[in-house]
Amino acid sequence: MKRSPAGTRMQPEPDYRQLDAEYVMRVFSRDLMMVRGEGARLWDDRGNEYIDCVAGIAVCSTGHAHPRVAAAIGEQAQNLIHVSNHYYIPGQAELARRLVGITGMEGGRVFFSNSGTEATEAALKLARVRSGRTRFLAFTNGFHGRTCGALSTTFKPSIRTPFLPLPYECSFADYGDLESVDEMLDGSVAAVIVESVQGEGGVVPAPAGFLSGLRRLCDDAGSLLILDEVQTGFGRTGRWFGYQHDEITPDIVTMAKGIGSGFPMGAIVAREGLEFRPGEHGGTYVGGPLACAAGNATIDIIEEILPDIRRKGDLFAEALSAYNPRHAGLMLGITVGERCGDVQRRCQENGVLVNCTNGHIRIVPPLVITDEEIEKAAEVIDEALCSVVL
């Protein structure tokens, strides 16, 4: 019941399920109402506790309600929530400097966005306007966003087909197959866009030598190389960005999700000499004060925990080794097939949240998850796989 002033009748709490069913577009499938989080734990409105191995789909990098992130947002909110990019934004230039630093792209520049798909849009526009070319090359089972430009480079037919024709011409090579790329890459391709680990595709890391091979092929063709690090960035794989395991330098890096510990934000970093000119791109909310406060606090925290992420990922993978998980740091995928949804529900019933994508269980917990939480979560996932699949 809602609290009411003295002398007035108590009003019943609204039925959020009924309100959702009546007023919200039926795009999402959901059955829980989360009301509180701390670290790698979540609690629903019925008091049930969960170990969260979804993290808002790899978004809550420093965990739920990290006190340093919450304090940074709260302090900034008391001074300035929004102005616009007609003025210098508190914390924005500092965050841009730090992003250039952690990407390793000395001399690069940043354009901020509000999401991952907007980061993709910015990268594609920049590649097209600076190269003078109109085509793109992406990969089977790749995912780069749902706005129409980003959707042009996203493979899944079921989400592409209803919106054809899409604004950009894009061909799809086989992920991991350099010969496939070599056959398709020519002087009309503005850029190749690729994930260092395919997240929506089931957590599939790029084969050894694939990214460095793409770098060479792009250089030969005069095409730009865009690394989509929206899901893999900010420590998820054990390095700041997934491409850093291959020691290459892309032309453009897209990022979002973990950048702000849950506060909506994205960005691109483009190499030296590659940038938008005045009037070519923009945005009302991009790089706002609250987002930059969250981003700077997030980087501070990840700097401290980054050295331990690969060990945690190895611990999780070892606990589930019977199922041959694919993993890169704290990003794991297990192929299940058509009963993937049943495994997800079984895990939820036993207090662990996982994500099911295209027949694969995806495990992307907050980077602050403890060893004990990893062990407990692995036990629940193991039991679910055994009871449902085997």
Rg (CA only): 21 Å
Please tally the β strands and state the result: 17
User: Helix/strand-derived class?
Assistant: alpha/beta
Q: Provide the spatial order of strands within the biggest beta sheet.
A: 4-12-11-10-7-5-6
Number of helices: 13
- What's the helical proportion of residues? 25-40%
Low-confidence stretches: none
Whole-number mean pLDDT? 95
Q: How far do the termini sit from each other?
A: 45 Å
The largest β sheet comes out as: 7 strands, mixed
Shape assignment: globular
Q: Strand percentage, roughly?
A: 15-25%
Q: Report the oligomer.
A: single chain
Question: What do these coordinates show?
Answer:
There is one protein chain. This protein has 13 helices and 17 strands. β2 and β3 form a beta hairpin. The protein is an alpha/beta fold and about 400 residues long. The radius of gyration is 21 Å and the shape is globular. The strands form 4 sheets. A 7-stranded mixed beta sheet has the order 4-12-11-10-7-5-6, sandwiched between helices. It has a 4-stranded mixed beta sheet with strand order 1-2-3-15. α12 crosses α13.
